């Protein structure tokens, strides 16, 4: 399936000069949504314990991938959204700074983890999530994305295998 036709560009969002890759058309087509979940799950070739998905668009497929791989699901959220004891990290976005948090008990030492998000851009968000998983003792198997924006060189910030369905 050609997933690229379900991803539209939104110019100047969330700020001037950014071309945002919008996956909502992909989510809105039942067959494309299911096929994308299947393909993302097929990128993982080893048993894992957890899928860590990044707020918010990573959640759309993270839970489905976890279910398909018989793994637990771990949400990483923006500051103030998780109700229990958390670890947090401040990170750089392509358009500012933010804070991400994970529950302290979400990953046990030695658990095998796949990190999932929709788009890899500058790599700041994914790198921050890797730091959170590492601090809990998780073993990162790979990072999965629907698409990578290669021209932003985010891949260079991630020291783990990276897999994606699309590359721009």
From TrEMBL:
GO cellular component: cytoplasm
Subcellular location per the Swiss-Prot or TrEMBL entry: Cytoplasm
Tree of life domain: Bacteria
EC main group: transferase
Spans traversing the lipid bilayer: none
GO MF term list: adenine binding; adenine phosphoribosyltransferase activity; AMP binding
Matching InterPro entries: Ade_phspho_trans, PRTase-like, PRTase_dom, UPRTase/APRTase
Gene Ontology BP annotations: adenine salvage; AMP salvage; purine ribonucleoside salvage
Keyword Transcription: no
CDD domains (UniProt xref): PRTases_typeI (cd06223)
PANTHER family, A to Z: ADENINE PHOSPHORIBOSYLTRANSFERASE (PTHR32315)
Family of the protein in this entry: Belongs to the purine/pyrimidine phosphoribosyltransferase family.
Name the record gives this protein: Adenine phosphoribosyltransferase
């Amino acid at each position: 399936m050609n997933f690229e036709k379900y991803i539209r560009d939104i110019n100047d969002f969330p700020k001037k000069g950014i071309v945002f890759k919008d996956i909502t058309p992909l989510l809105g087509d039942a067959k494309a949504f299911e096929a994308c979940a299947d393909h993302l799950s097929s990128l993982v070739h080893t048993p894992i314990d957890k899928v860590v998905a990044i707020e918010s668009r990573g959640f759309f497929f993270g839970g489905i991938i976890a279910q398909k791989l018989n793994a637990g699901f771990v949400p990483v959220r923006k500051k103030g959204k998780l109700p229990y004891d958390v670890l947090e990290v401040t990170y750089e976005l392509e358009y500012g700074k933010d804070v991400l948090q994970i529950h302290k008990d979400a990953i046990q030492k030695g658990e095998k983890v796949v990190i999932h998000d929709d788009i890899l851009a500058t790599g700041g968000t994914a790198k921050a999530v890797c730091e959170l998983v590492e601090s809990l003792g998780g073993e990162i198997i790979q990072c999965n994305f629907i698409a990578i924006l290669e021209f932003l060189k985010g891949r260079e910030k991630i020291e783990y295998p990276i897999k994606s369905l699309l590359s721009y």
